[in-house]
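Internal tracking record. Fields below are filled automatically when a chain is submitted to the structure queue. Please do not edit lines marked as system-generated. If the sequence contains nonstandard residues, flag them in the REMARKS field before resubmitting.
Queue: standard
Priority: normal
Entity type: single polypeptide chain
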Amino acid sequence: MTSTSPASAPHDRNTPSPAQPARRRHRRVPGRWLVVAAAALAAGTAVATQLPADARDARDARDATAPGYGQDDLSRDTEAIRALGITGVQARVTTGAGRDLVAASGVAEVGTDRPVPRNGYFRMASTGKALVATVILQLVDEGELALDDTVDRRLPGLVDGNGNDGRRITIRHLLQHTSGLHDDLPGFATPQEYDEHRYDTHTPREIVARAMRHRPDFAPGDGWGYSNTGYVLLDMIIEEVTGHPWHQEVEDRILRPLGMNHTYLPGGTPTLRRPHANAYEVYPSGERVDVTRVIVPDPGGYVSTTADVNRFFQALLGGELLPRARLAEMRDTVPVNEEMRVFWPDGRYGLGLVNRPLSCGGGYWSHEGGESGYITLNGATHDGSRTVTVSMSTALGDSLDNTLRQERAAGDLVDHALCDTPGTGRAT
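SYSTEM-GENERATED OUTPUT FOLLOWS
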């Protein structure tokens, strides 16, 4: 989808319907994570510590041998994910001491022995929603917006028809997925659709117009349903308020100040910068397809790295991007719907942030994403002192069982890393 900015994507071009939380281009929620996916080949494991910083990471790995979650645990958990049939996995754990554990497993491309890059680029998909939500809350803090402003006040007449009413939907509803707006985003249900439509583009207004063809899923504030369309509207609101492209505001307010130099929007370019692992989808038919080349719609089209994603959550939860009062509003959550609870047991959604329980007690904050084969889970402790990101380059969409196994195995890695608990290396 073309937009005022370079193309983006994972956000969701294929956001999941209420019944499917995220998944590839057909997976757009947290990563249209469930629709289709890939079964991948198994390949050797490559565990490593970071490169230009190899010496430093090697030192960190040695220092991490104390009781708790260490390099060997991360390697085992990463390999357990790959063993499910994921082509490639990379993971990073960042602690308050500034020490990173890094591991990779599998291959970067089917049919080769090229290892997964430990600092590789991937499509971060719906994780980008947290960036957009942060900008919105900064504008609220500056007095440029109010969470109770209606969509119609900012974008008059855009949300209208078939029972949709922008006069009743607030910015808070959009941020929290309680607007009731139905998603009707373009996606690829079959390999043939991917071949035919992977370079299609759509403007934000076209995306909103598609949603207006449907009646709302529920009245504003009366339910919860993942809506990528809501975040397309938030992008448009940022532009209306600031007079700048929404992605420029993300760049100026978040990426540049935090030194997130490896996070970017590819625009109309269907490829990623190198190094990266190729991405694969396993469709319900069982066919595995390389879906790396694609143009994805804003605002989920950001490409990033595990280091940058960890840096963002560290800064956000650590109070670097929002004052305490605004961060508290961001963490004011509501329960997700029954369909999403299959993927996020006891999960709750705030304003662009997900809260999920930890096995060791308490909870963590995150926003996973999935787009065109790339699946990303992440998490941060309440104060951002410990963060973790795992990126997988295969989406297992051939069955709900396989999709859940992939989600749970990656979720286990996040849980072990944040609880600082040695992992078992067993996929559930």
